[in-house]
Amino acid sequence: MANTNELQNLKRQFLEHIEIEKGRSLKTVTNYERYLDRFFEVTKVSRPEDITDDVIREYRLILNRTEIRNTGSSQKETLKKKTQNYYLIALRMFLKYLVRRNISSLSSERIDLAKIPERSIDPVSSDELDRLLKAPDGGDLKNLRDRAILELLFSTGLRVSELCSLPRDIDLKKDEFSIRGKGEKVRVVFISESAKESIKNYLKKRTDMDDALFVNLGKFGKGDEEKGGRRLTSRSVERIVKHYAIKAGISKKVTPHGLRHSFATDLLSNGADLRSVQMLLGHSNITTTQIYTHVTDKHLREIHKKFHNQK
């Protein structure tokens, strides 16, 4: 029992470490705890030195064969490779922490991540984007709010969580503002004139005193303030984007993250360098940004066709 408690204590100290010293969000800490608890539950390890290559191999087989039920469906499927990697990344970080504490265990380098298919990106076309931005065409508060949301997502490349966190007193006299993004990192984003105009029109129509920039326009009860007030959630923004994509006659799936893709591909296709796009998106690693380089493929094909002496 003492050994089990020791391992649990190390896990607790590790979670405190990534929260305080690494500056990870509470959501990330909670996810890491869940991933590690799954590992301890499945493998029954009781000491750090019990974590061996054989234990990891068995654990990976279990992850690969774990069945999950699809939402709204009776069908089951196994964990996606990307999801499996979340579990493995948490375990690798825990093992690295043990090394820092001079505690004997398996080297984190012994755990390879699962290979996942290359991400494919299908951003909305210029024509589709134009139709989407014009879809909220009314002069009422809801249409004005939704137009501002769509304009701002494409103008800045914000993550949906970052958009939802924006305050009402955003300074629209400037062409830029700071945002605290993933990992509590602060970056500067730039806003277009059309996005600023849309936000101004929306705010002029607002009569409430809520501090959030984008709020729920439904009924507002007394207890809602304790639940986070009227601030729109990420899920609500996703529904809004989906609604207007359908209204605009766009057949492909359109999400707030999809507009972030469009923001990035628009920059690259117009000549922006990858490093600058990385900074604008707030990516920690440039390899994350490289998924957008596919937009140059068409341009390269045209150059090849024009200049290559084909026989």
How confident is the prediction overall: mean pLDDT? Answer: 84
Topology-level CATH name of the largest domain: hpI Integrase, Chain A
The number of helices is 13
Q: Using DSSP, what is the number of strands?
A: 4
Class from helix and strand fractions: mainly alpha
Q: CATH homologous superfamily name of the largest domain?
A: Intergrase catalytic core
CATH architecture of the largest domain, by name, is Orthogonal Bundle
* Main sheet specs: 2 strands, antiparallel
Radius of gyration: 24 Å
- Measured as a percent range, the helix fraction is 40-55%
- For the record, give the distance between the C-alpha atoms at the N and C termini, rounded to a whole number: 76 Å
Tell me the β content: 5-15%
**What is the topology, as strand order, of the major beta sheet?**
1-2
Q: Globular, elongated, flat, extended or rod-shaped: what is the shape? A: globular
How many domain modules? Answer: 2
CATH class of the largest domain: Mainly Alpha
Compressed to H and E, one letter per element, the order equals: HHHEEHHHHEEHHHHHH
Low-confidence stretches: 220-228
